[in-house]
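Pilot study result, target chain (178 residues):
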Amino acid sequence: MQLYRDAMALDRHSGGPQQKMSDGAAFLWRSELAGHPRDAAAWRALYDYASSALPRPGSGLADLHVILAQAVTGEDAALDARTRQMEGRYPSGSYLPAVARGFAAFEHGDFSGAIEALAPLTGENERIGGSRAQHDLIEFTLLKAYINANRLEEARRLISARRLGASGIPVAGLAAVH
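Predicted structure:
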């Protein structure tokens, strides 16, 4: 979290609105999936920032991080409104609205609902662009939902289908899968 405060917090980040949103949300979410405690104040700041700097859908990649902040902060009405605004807006079709449903279900502790929304998207992350870091947000959320739902065989299949890469899989509970 010191790295977040030093380099990615809104008052320290030198990038534009989309970069601030994507870097901040990605870092915070990945740290939580790895087992670190939630920084509710940092999430609230990101949500408030997104509400003013990125109030409407405009870029699928930025919207991915905005909907994540909306889900984490429990802003269900804002998430529903943005999801409706995204419907049919992007070439990726219903991909981002499905991700929004998956994030919201995960945050509500409905891991089966998160799996139902996110599992069909496996292998389609390129539809929103971005790098593997952004795609990992979705894949690692699905993996954590499998673990939390004690659906370990499906978690194993997801891991085995994962493309090789330099990064490991920083998701708490992963030892139960191996």
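One observation from the pilot: The CA atoms of residues 157 and 177 lie 10 Å apart. A full batch analysis is planned for the follow-on phase.
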